[in-house]
Each structure stands twice: as structure tokens, then as C-alpha cells.
Amino acid sequence: MSMPGTRRRSRVERGLAVTNSNRSLDEELIARHNATRLAALQDDYGALSRTLERRGIAIDAIKGKAARLELALPSWGTGIGGTRFARFPVLGEPTCFDEKLEDCAVIQQLCRITPRVSPHFPWDKISDPRATRERAQQLGLGFDAVNSNTFQDQAEQKQSYRFGSLTHTSAAVRDQAVAHNIECIQLGRALGSKALTVWIGDGTNFPGQQQLGDSLDRYLGSARLIYAALPEDWRMFIEHKLYEPAFYSTVISDWGTSILTAKELGPKAKCLVDLGHHAPSVNIEQIVARLHAFGKLGGFHFNDSKYGDDDLDSGSINPHQLFLVFNELVIAEQDRRAEFDPAYMIDQSHNITDPVESLLSSAEAICVAFVKALMVDRALLSDYQGANDVLMAFRTLRDAYGLDARPIVAMARFEAGGAIDPIAAFRESGWRASQASTRKATGRAAGIV
Ligand code: PSV
Ligand code: MN
């Protein structure tokens, strides 16, 4: 027996709850964590199951769909971001791609719906893609869409993107930007990825700076070259953004430009909806329905936004909008007028929270929104819609939104081997503290790399 004050601290207390072999969390820790919470979860799950049963909805089918949800993790989201003014680093944050993968593996181990990582080049330096792919496999991870970056200059590059990249007036700059995208495809191929996401910051900051029509023509010319380099089974996601860093006009500013561009390019080109990239008050769920109707819904970057930002944690500001987006996705999946295979990714920047915790919290919020949409009584809703019973149709949506979906999400996660409360388990593991002793300290320079 140890004396009070002299008791040897457990591995967990010392922040050592990691296995030495693959540097992920100790499975025993998760099992112990779950053992203390399982009875309460079963209780909550049983109560929700009875509520749904009264509505003729089978809880297990919904749980199965929740378990099959897959969200990609942004490699850049694992580091501490910053604003234009400051970055507040934490000890133990990842300093290289390998360490970002380790943190993603921890997230996946705890929540079980984030099996793939989306790399961003050249932020992510990968010298041996085969070895990186193997390392990811060991950690239980695969790779999702690769992201190109022609919105910043890199030390080694010849041409500057100060005045644009794929739309630049100079052919030499456009060629460089096209070549970078093609390199991203090659790297992605080696990693086992199947899509390229292209977001450009091109546009203008002053009226008169450029001919607005000509810029789009130049974009299409460059994008066609990238499209031509896509492997047969790949997709190219075109991500629109209203403004920033082009504060007067952005070339790919909205879903209209995005879908026209995707149609010009061909069937492998699809539109990517980043929830934060719209004007305030825009009806994003309607955009989702439109893109699906025309077979151009490629995927999502999930985040939230209050003012003009696009990097807040998913569901932290407007969880109802997230629910309405998933409501359209549930309808789209059943509707099948067009292929339905959207790629889901979280795209956030974490400035003052632990990135692992924020990503876990967002994965939960996204899955909760999905489950709420699955709990809508579709037959009833359709009857009310047909009868133009506006209030009851609205109430049918509300009745699902008002339910607490968390027991389904937690039960699906538990049954898949994850933690009932992933953030609590992460804290119990002492993961961040354990990494602080081996990972280098990062700087204060602003930026999300
Ligand atoms: C741009 O704001 C964006 O949403 C794009 O997806 C980028 O690739 C990502 O953020 C990271 O900066
Ligand atoms: Mn994005």
C-alpha cells in the first residue's frame, strides 16, 4: 500500500497512456473509461428507443447509419491556428506530418468516424509517400482528398501568386500553379487518395484591377489542364468562397460559378460546399439540394461561422443549419436522381482549444445533426407537405430536431470500439502532455500550418 503523497502515480496520471508500438492510445484506457459510463448510456439509449418506437422509427437502423458516417480530418486542423494578430502555441502540438497523423489516429481511435486524413500540399511535406501510406495504415488511417495550395508563395517557387495563380495574367504563373496541382494528384495517387480539392484565393482587391470575365476564362483554361491529368476514378472538387483574400471580387465566389465551372470541365468535376464560404443569410441547405439535383454535389467542408469567419467548430454557432443541411442530404440519398457520394471533411482552425478536442467535438456535432435528420418521420412529413399543412410539416422537422441524438451517436461509437465520451477519454489519456516531452515547441507566427 502506498502512503498518501508518496503513492506512485499511474501511467494515466503521468500522461503515459500511450502504447509504445504505434503511439496511439492504450485500448485498455478506453475500456476502463467505457465501463464507468455504459450503464447510463444504455439507460438513455433505451429511453430514446422507446420514444422513436412510438413514432414507428427503428433506432437500430439509425444507429447503423451513424456508425457508417465517415468524416475526413484536415491535416492542418491538428495544429494550433492563429488569427492575423496572434498564435498561442501549446506544448505537444504536432510539428510534422507524421505527428499530425498520430493525432488523427487518436481522434479516430476515440470517435471511429474519422478514418481518413486530407493532406494539404506543400504544407505537408511527404518525401516518401509509400512509407507515409504504410505508416497511416499502421495507425488505422487512409487518405482522403488532397488539397493544393496556390494561395501562398513558398520559399522555393519561381513565380509569385501575389496577383493570382490559376487566373493570373501571366502564362508562366498559371503554368506553375497547374504543375503544382498535377504534382498533388501524383502524390495523392501514391497515398491512395481519389480526389483533388482546388481552392484558389484568386480575385481582385480593387475595382478595375482586372476584367472580371477574363479572369474566369483564364481559370477555365488552367482548370482544364488539371482536369485532363485526373486518373479515371478521381474527382476534382471545386471549392468556392465569397471573399478573402480577394476583398473586392473572387473568381470562384459562389455556388453558381462553381457549378458552371464544374459543368464546363466535365463529369469528374464536382462542387464542394464549405459551410463558411457564403454570404450571411444565404440558404445553404437549398444550395445543397440544387447541387444534388444537377449531379454536381461533390462534398463538404464542415465548420461554422458567425460573422465573416469560416473556421469555427462545426455546430458551435448554428447547429440548426447543420441539421437542415443533413435533412437535404438524407432526402438526396433517397432521391437518387443523381449519383450520391458526397465527401465529408471537417475544415476548421483552432486557436485557443486543443485541436484534438475541437475535432472530436465537431465530429460529434456533425454526427448528431445527421442522426437528427435520420429521425425525421419522412412519411408523415410527406403527407403534410402534400396537404400543404405548413405548421405540421414544420413541426415534424422540429420533433426530430428536438430529440437528444447523443445516445445513438455514443452507442454507435461504443460498439465500434470508441469512447463513450471521447473528449473526457482524451483528457484521461494525458496524450497532449505525453507528446510535449518528445515534440519540438512550435513558434508564435500566425498561420494554420
Ligand atoms: C479556404 O478558406 C479553405 O476553406 C480551403 O479549403 C483551404 O484549403 C482551407 O481553407 C485551408 O486553408
Ligand atoms: Mn475549406
Short synopsis of the structure:
By secondary structure, the chain is of the alpha/beta class. Helix content is 45%, strand content 9%. The protein has helices spanning 27-35, 38-54, 59-68, 97-111, 129-138, 171-191, 212-228, 255-265, 284-293, 319-335, 355-374, 378-386, 390-401, 406-415, 422-429, 431-436, and strands at 72-74, 116-118, 142-143, 146-147, 195-198, 203-204, 235-239, 249-250, 269-274, 297-302, 343-346.
Bound molecules: alpha-D-psicofuranose, manganese (II) ion
Global geometry: globular
Q: How many distinct helices?
A: 16
How large, in whole angstroms, is the Cα Rg?
A: 23 Å
Major sheet: arrangement of strands: 4-5-7-9-10-11
Q: What is the overall pLDDT average? A: 94
| Percentage beta strand | 5-15%
Q: How many runs of DSSP E, i.e. beta strands?
A: 11
Helical fraction equals: 40-55%
Distance from first to last alpha carbon: 48 Å
Low-confidence stretches: 1-16
* SSE ordering: HHHEHEHEEHEEHEEHEHEHEHHHHHH
| Structural class by secondary-structure content | alpha/beta
> Major β-sheet, in short?
6 strands, parallel
What does this structure look like?
This protein has 449 residues and is an alpha/beta fold. Helices cover 45% and strands 9% of the residues. It is built from 16 helices and eleven strands. The protein has helices at 27-35, 38-54, 59-68, 97-111, 129-138, 171-191, 212-228, 255-265, 284-293, 319-335, 355-374, 378-386, 390-401, 406-415, 422-429, 431-436; strands at residues 72-74, 116-118, 142-143, 146-147, 195-198, 203-204, 235-239, 249-250, 269-274, 297-302, 343-346. Strands 4-5-7-9-10-11 form a six-stranded parallel sheet. A three-stranded parallel sheet has the order 1-2-3, with helices on one face. Strands 6-8 form a two-stranded antiparallel sheet. Strand 10, helix 10 and strand 11 (343-346) form a beta-alpha-beta unit. The longest helix has 21 residues, at 171-191. The radius of gyration is 23 Å and the shape is globular. The termini are far apart. Residues 1-16 have low confidence and may be disordered. The structure holds alpha-D-psicofuranose and manganese (II) ion. Residues 76, 147, 199, 239, 241, 274, 301, 310, 347, 448 line the site of alpha-D-psicofuranose.
